Amino acid sequence: MPDEASAGDYAAMIEDLRGFLDRLSSARPSPEAVRCLREALTGWSAELDRSQVPEHDRVFGRLAGLPGRGQTMSPRLEIVETGPDGSRGTVRFGRYHLGRNGAAHGGSIPLVFDEILGQVARVNGRSLARTAYLRVDYRSITPIDRDLEISARLVSVTGRKYVVAGELRDGPVLCAEAEALFVELRPGRP
Ligand SMILES: CCCCCCCCCCCCCC(=O)SCCNC(=O)CCNC(=O)[C@H](O)C(C)(C)COP(=O)(O)OP(=O)(O)OC[C@H]1O[C@@H](n2cnc3c(N)ncnc32)[C@H](O)[C@@H]1OP(=O)(O)O
């Protein structure tokens, strides 16, 4: 993990990357702008080639206190309250997550549910659990570019099985709800 000082820089870089992806996805760049961006990207890739590490040493997605654990794969999730039986937070789908007509892409919604439901399945020292199923019901359009409320609650624990449910809301409007089963891994299982 980076030290405290560089963790701040890393967090800011991840936010910049989110902003970049939003801008890229809503741009219609000129051929000259594309060439210029490509050149810059090639330089950044070469820089990163110098610091590739094995999975265990990665930083991306492993910074617990940061929105979305410091990764950009799923929309920006910020947990504001967490406990043994549930958690709640805000999530913002950017322009990068646009499906069509102002609505978030249907595939980006399970990504966030897997994150927040998976975290509930893992709190309080519970061992590593994997998603066995994740069911999402889309109740209403999920808007992009504004903070939405998201919550997860532990429904049941049966042996190694954790059922967790979640809701995604835009104020009074229920956008989507989810249910997932997480199964605690057997000892020694990768
Ligand atoms: C900042 C710090 C970083 C940390 C990150 C923090 C959080 C990150 C959050 C992100 C989180 C992201 C997380 C991810 O995305 S994890 C990635 C996505 N998930 C996977 O890749 C999982 C692939 N599947 C498996 O590995 C196995 O199938 C598992 C482990 C799930 C079970 O294989 P295992 O051999 O262990 O168990 P078993 O087969 O004996 O079954 C045991 C029981 O479970 C019941 N069962 C099983 N499957 C299903 C099903 N589909 N529907 C209904 N029931 C099912 C089964 O009937 C049985 O019930 P019972 O007969 O005992 O009653």
From TrEMBL:
Pfam families: 4HBT (PF03061). The keyword Mitochondrion does not apply. The keyword Hydrolase applies. Residues 101-172 form the Thioesterase domain. Its EC number is 3.1.2.2. It is a peripheral membrane protein. SUPFAM superfamilies: Thioesterase/thiol ester dehydrase-isomerase. It is found in: Cell projection, Ruffle membrane; Cytoplasm; Membrane. Gene3D superfamilies: Hotdog Thioesterase (3.10.129.10). Keywords: Apoptosis, Cell membrane, Cell projection, Cytoplasm, Fatty acid metabolism, Hydrolase, Lipid metabolism, Membrane, Transit peptide. InterPro entries: HotDog_dom_sf, THEM4/THEM5_acyl-CoA_thioest, Thioestr_dom. It catalyses: dodecanoyl-CoA + H2O = dodecanoate + CoA + H(+); tetradecanoyl-CoA + H2O = tetradecanoate + CoA + H(+); (5Z,8Z,11Z,14Z)-eicosatetraenoyl-CoA + H2O = (5Z,8Z,11Z,14Z)-eicosatetraenoate + CoA + H(+); hexadecanoyl-CoA + H2O = hexadecanoate + CoA + H(+). It comes from the Bacteria. Belongs to the THEM4/THEM5 thioesterase family. PANTHER family: ACYL-COENZYME A THIOESTERASE THEM4 (PTHR12418:SF19). This is Acyl-coenzyme A thioesterase THEM4. It comes from Actinocorallia longicatena.
